[in-house]
Amino acid sequence: xxxxxxxxxxxxxxxxxxxxxxxxxxxxxxxxxxxxxxxxxxxxxxxxxxxxxxxxxxxxxxxxxxxxxxxxxxxxxxxxxxxxxxxxxxxxxxxxxxxxxxxxxxxxxxxxxxxxxxxxxxxxxxxxxxxxxxxxxxxxxxxxxxxxxxxxxxxxxxxxxxxxxxxxxxxxxxxxxxxxxxxxxxxxxxxxxxxxxxxxxxxxxxxxxxxxxxxxxxxxxxxxxxxxxxxxxxxxxxxxxxxxxxxxxxxxxxxxxxxxxxxxxxxxxxxxxxxxxxxxxxxxxxxxxxxxxxxxxxxxxxxxxxxxxxxxxxxxxxxxxxxxxxxxxxxxxxxxxxxxxxxxxxxxxxxxxxxxxxxxxxxxxxxxxxxxxxxxxxxxxxxxxxxxxxxxxxxxxxxxxxxxxxxxxxxxxxx
Length: 415
Ligand code: SAH
Fold this sequence. Notes:
This protein is an alpha/beta fold. It has a domain at 111-352 and 394-414: Alpha/beta knot, CATH 3.40.1280. Helix content is 42%, strand content 12%. The chain has 12 helices and 12 strands. It has a 6-stranded parallel β-sheet with strand order 3-2-1-9-8-10, with helices on both faces. A hairpin with a 2-residue loop joins strand 5 (235-236) and strand 6. The structure holds S-adenosyl-L-homocysteine (SAH). S-adenosyl-L-homocysteine binds next to strand 9, helix 8 and helix 10. It comes from Kwoniella dejecticola CBS 10117. One of its GO terms (molecular function) is tRNA (guanosine(9)-N1)-methyltransferase activity. This is tRNA (guanine(9)-N1)-methyltransferase. Its EC number is 2.1.1.221.
């Protein structure tokens, strides 16, 4: 299919243009024992959706490019309305700013004051709690965090990814292998977990801790991290990716005895009022559509780490106080707060207003349906969670991370 044809493609067209599915039709005999007919149908549908994804992405990209070139043409010919002209100019300015920030970020030419010297941790110690699709989504979210950090004026100095190795997170490790993570600036990768990070930050003896001036400086050869699940898979173009795991060296700028860990959790009692450059904020690296309640709150309590939630309820009228967001949304909110020093603006930049209404509307519709069912069946009914999908992030494809437009899954909300 050429690009022009793709431009006119909508979801239904994608389905019809994709041709016959390569996924075999399911018959009663194929059904594994114990799997219901409906579950089988759902699995087949899911597989078909996966098959269509690249086509949908290509169509969306082509549509976006077409919109942009129409704007460019109109701008050059002076035929745009005032509104479109303003949109075009704003986009161009944004693009210039992003390019300048990326250049500085990648060249490492940011001065001290230009980056935020606190830290953010993505705790990747939940590999075994996610299904394959959630692992994929998690991989994209990790890449989105890096990508966001590259494009802001004041990036976070270090993003530490803990529990990342063939043995600590085997499926994430494999899925991340085509993301070039070992070349990401300001990103540090540890086999060790949050527990060891907590120990490194609170160690009183400086001789216990080693510092890495270059967070991406590979460790000495022979560095061992225990069991080696997936041996061989971690080799990329002759590089042993395990050499890029730098724990338990603290990245430059993070100081033992000064920097304190705060585990972020929607279930925390404490609400964040501000962010401090003496703190390191941990985000639980899991996509679970809220299957595991209190997961990160409990983990932090066990490790004796302070917990806090984002001040959503205070600033956003239409969202519940304990709304559970995705990893990259939480990361982006922190990043935006660092840029704008204003929670409301940070929330509004990351979660467009429209989404609150959509999610509220979806919930109302769902509740109405439940009520109706209850009236019909006389049952008490359980308040089910309402997942809300958003896919309108129009970030351009990022060559370093292999990212296409974002597919953000808003995790379910606590009531
Ligand atoms: N069921 C998981 C939810 C994970 S959501 C749990 O109980 O922890 C992924 C991560 O995003 C969380 O671990 C938390 O670190 C962060 N997060 C999501 N919503 C948040 C909120 N409202 N306030 C603070 N952190 C939040």
